[in-house]
């Protein structure tokens, strides 16, 4: 699945909470939690590395957002907060972990992610005016020649993997902590905190 970003900054919002990716001028801190509004605001910017491998990726992106140490060359937005910080912030809002995508070998079929759904939007300033759009409006599908349909992104918290930094050989951590991936465009990318549930994201 190949998508092209044709706008500058994006925002994500979910059903239970609001999860915002906005530019530096719109946030007082790199991560702000409003428990009353069930809202999280993240400070971020368009990835400066986006398009770095244009001859190979040809405009495709894998992530809506990642942290500073994620795959910034395949992410539209890079936020100051790490995936671990976002994970902890969502936890404070009382949002439970979902079930990350998986594969059933016996049935030879993919198991889609399940969890609380988020709507995703973006805010930025244009001539002293705030512009806000849904994240899916910023993504163009090369195969359908249309923007991405409206999406309610699934929060799973990512798959878990062995914690190589722990002295406990059985210790596990969310994959997102290591990968620093926050919102994936592909449904079965369990390295991110959020997945895209749309059928075309399977490609």
Q: Topology, please?
A:
Layout: E1 3-5, E2 12-13, E3 18-22, E4 31-34, E5 39-46, H1 54-57, E6 63-66, E7 75-79, H2 83-92, E8 102-104, E9 109-111, E10 116-126, E11 129-134, E12 139-141, E13 146-147, E14 152-155, E15 160-162, E16 172-174, H3 175-179, E17 181-184, E18 192-195
Parallel strand pairs: 3-5, 3-10, 6-7, 17-18
Antiparallel strand pairs: 1-12, 2-3, 2-10, 4-5, 5-7, 6-17, 8-9, 10-11, 10-14, 12-13, 14-18, 15-16
Write up this protein.
The protein has 203 residues and is mainly beta. It has one domain. Helix content is 9%, strand content 38%. It contains 3 helices and 18 strands. The strands form 4 sheets. Strands 2, 3, 4, 5, 6, 7, 10, 11, 14, 17 and 18 form an 11-stranded mixed β-sheet that branches. A 3-stranded antiparallel β-sheet has the order 1-12-13, with no helix packed on it. Strands 8-9 form a two-stranded antiparallel sheet. Strand 10 (116-126) and strand 11 (129-134) form a beta hairpin. The longest helix is centred in the middle third of the chain and has 10 residues, at 83-92. The chain starts with a strand and ends in an 8-residue tail after the last strand. Residues 1-18 and 22-27 have low confidence and may be disordered.
Summarize the structure.
The chain is mostly beta strands and about 200 residues long. It has helices spanning about 55, 85-90, 175-180; strands at about 5, 10-15, 20, 30-35, 40-45, 65, 75-80, 100-105, 110, 115-125, 130-135, 140, 145, 150-155, 160, 170-175, 180-185, 190-195.
């Amino acid at each position: 699945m190949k998508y092209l970003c044709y706008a500058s900054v994006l925002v994500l919002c979910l059903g239970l909470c609001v999860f915002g990716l906005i530019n530096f001028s719109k946030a007082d801190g790199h991560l702000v939690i409003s428990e009353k509004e069930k809202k999280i605001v993240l400070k971020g910017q368009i990835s400066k590395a986006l398009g770095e491998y244009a001859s190979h990726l040809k405009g495709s992106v894998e992530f809506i957002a990642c942290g500073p140490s994620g795959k910034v060359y395949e992410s539209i937005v890079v936020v100051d907060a790490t995936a671990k910080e976002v994970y902890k912030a969502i936890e404070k809002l009382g949002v439970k972990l979902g079930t990350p995508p998986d594969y059933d070998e016996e049935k030879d079929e993919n198991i889609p992610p399940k969890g609380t759904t988020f709507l995703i939007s973006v805010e930025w300033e244009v001539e002293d005016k705030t512009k806000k759009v849904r994240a899916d409006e910023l993504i163009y599908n090369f195969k359908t020649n249309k923007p991405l349909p409206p999406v309610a992104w699934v929060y799973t918290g990512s798959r878990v993997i062995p914690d190589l930094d722990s002295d406990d050989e059985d210790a596990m951590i969310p994959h997102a902590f290591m990968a620093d991936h926050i919102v994936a465009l592909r449904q079965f990318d369990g390295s991110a905190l959020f997945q895209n549930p749309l059928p075309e994201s399977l490609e």
